[in-house]
């Protein structure tokens, strides 16, 4: 870039997600840094992976001294559904010399459920700038929003007065703000999901028609409690509500009651679906008739019944701690979601505390669900945020967890609150903020996961191909002080994921104390890849390099006693690189 002329200040698109064939408006903001008038050309190229799509679009500009100007270029999306694109914008002067460039990603998908990018909102006060918040999330390509604690009461979500109400904790909720969020989000093609528990009520539930005979009780053999299963949320609140009381999700009376309440939510507010929540597995329970069971064993039946009743509305469900996730994976939910905690264990008895544990959960969810992409709420720097409010996230910890999840084919819920990031399961608890560096890198990351969604979570299956990184240790289990490498493939590509853990001493994804070393960046990495199908070209793409643009790598074929392989050199590795090889068919 020539710092003495004109720069691209910003490139955005008008919606979060587009239907096939839609007209997409790309807005390019230019800034003249000089005291002279400047003229030139803006060029737009659309790329799907390594291939240009359609013709180059061009538009002339003329800028007064120190002026800003926005130029809109209209790009017609192809008819292909569920496809990601990287839009490359280049600025040239009147002599056709390149001055500056930038990128923006575009998701052309008829539904958000194949490539979910979940965000959240929780501030429903009177004066909140709804349009600004939706705009920021749109620019991160968020295609669905969880409305956290928007409701009146868990068992009675729709209030009597739609102008203003209090939530369980006493926070004031303004109806106009909720309606405004929903309206603004729909204008940019975001889906609106109404958060509510699957099986909970608060005090006063009997007066509202919830019967005690539907209740869920601790088994007499359960060491965690006695009587009606309840969960303490606060010592005291202005509303007097301090506990959640739970009900049997198999009970038809409870099902009929809560499904009716959620359909009322859809009718009154126009939400697009139900984000249904739990508090996890608390051991053996029993119903009013004395039948003993685990709550997690009721998930499939409840969710299938819920989906049948709410029909075309979307259903998302959170089996906290991935406890009982196997029962959700095979249910009729539209999107998979599970809140991860490092002290919970998987079915093999291994803790969900490491990078590899996250990948393993995503892999299993995909396999058991028939290809769905798991959304992972993983609250970063949790303890540090509680003890040091007002501080910043550890950049390396956030990016390594993100790379872990996205490379595996999963997704995150982390962005909301006017562009800030989650650090706590109670979403209004906004203790930590992103540094400018992390904010920039998250922007690059979200462009990347959209542009390359067809290589990340579109039917790819892991392989056992051997990968060797010369001069550096590598392994496929995310061990500290190594380069984490593994291979996947689909019909067209073989893919290598590389996550840099060199110089990283621990593989704990949460970095609870806010400490995580920045990986040691390396250059000129030589790789040997023992391929399945002979590659005809090799490409590098990374959110850390050239804003995610694909770069073709030179390579050579070779053979040793382990088999046929290719050898190539990667210019650099900072956090996460993806190598994709086009099969020679």
TrEMBL record:
Gene3D superfamilies, per the entry: Glycosidases, Golgi alpha-mannosidase II, Immunoglobulins
Entry annotated with the keyword Signal: yes
Signal peptide: none
CDD domains on file: GH66
UniProt keyword terms in alphabetical order: Signal
InterPro entries on file: Glyco_hydro_66 (IPR025092), Glyco_hydro_b (IPR013780), Ig-like_fold (IPR013783)
Similarity comment: Belongs to the glycosyl hydrolase 66 family.
UniProt-recorded name of the protein: Dextranase
Organism of origin: Globicatella sulfidifaciens
